[in-house]
Design a protein that fits this description.
Low-confidence stretches: none
CATH architecture of the largest domain: 3-Layer(aba) Sandwich
Radius of gyration: 19 Å
CATH topology of the largest domain: Rossmann fold
CATH class of the largest domain: Alpha Beta
Largest sheet: 6 strands, parallel
Number of domains: 2
Distance between the termini: 10 Å
Length: 249
């Protein structure tokens, strides 16, 4: 995220405030942490926001993924009761903030008792022992950030007509071997997933308009100076920071 000189054919003015999303970086093409980077034009978007850089740095990929999961996939409305499974991660915090601002009821889970305070803003904060079926009720939408490890259980927590969106992989299981859609998806329940490789200017505009309209400050865990990038990466690998890690130039 930066102010950059722009090539004449980019559609961006010199000095324009912009944000870049991953758009497949690190998966579809090489990408890493650097002070300067050459990025594909299609993943660079102009932004109009008065938020400080530290707050802006927490937005692009995290809030884009939360936004797409909640609205494109779950069709979230104020009338919904939303389960966020695995809520004590940057994506979980963003989803809680957006859903709470929208006005729906939120149930947030963590598998660690010492992290319950981190999801205290939810309407219900629940310890997740791997089985939620029968413990929570009237859930109409579910955002599963644990992934295939607990997906079958998540599918049976929602009411008939409900939707489950599997976005995260916190459980460390990346595929669901032996998954039988006929048996494992309850009748009348819908399963989808969000893949964040296709960001658009329209969606970024919608996200920043929502943040501004609801007077929301993006959630971040800790801000590091660029000179301490090594410390930031160590903290990320060791899970020392609760929330999004932001690096400031």
């Amino acid at each position: 995220m930066s102010r950059i000189p722009a090539p004449s054919d980019s559609g961006l003015a010199a000095g324009q405030k912009v944000a870049a999303l991953m758009g497949g970086m690190g998966r579809s093409f090489n990408g890493s942490y650097a002070e300067y980077a050459l990025l594909p034009q299609q993943i660079v978007f102009k932004i109009d926001s008065d938020l400080p850089w530290e707050a802006l740095g927490a937005v692009p990929e995290t809030y884009f993924t939360a936004w797409g999961s909640l609205f494109e996939c779950l069709h979230l409305t104020p009338e919904d009761k939303l389960l966020i499974r695995g809520a004590t991660c940057a994506l979980g915090y963003a989803a809680m903030q957006i859903a709470g601002a929208l006005g729906c009821k939120v149930i947030a889970t963590t598998h660690r008792k010492d992290k319950l305070s981190l999801i205290s803003n939810a309407d219900e904060a629940v310890i997740d022992d791997g089985r939620l079926t029968g413990r929570i009720h009237c859930v109409t939408k579910a955002l599963d950030l644990i992934g295939p490890r607990n997906l079958r259980d998540t599918l049976t927590t929602v009411e008939k007509g409900g939707i489950v969106c599997q976005t995260g992989l916190l459980g460390g299981v990346y595929a669901l071997n032996g998954f039988d859609p006929i048996k494992d998806i309850p009748n009348g329940v819908y399963l989808t997933g969000f893949f964040s490789n296709s960001p658009t200017q329209q969606v970024l505009d919608e996200i920043f308009a929502f943040l501004s309209g609801h007077h929301l400050v993006p959630v971040s865990g800790r801000v590091y100076d660029f000179e301490h990038m090594r410390d930031a990466l160590i903290a990320q690998d060791e899970g020392k920071v609760n929330g999004k890690i932001v690096v400031k130039l």
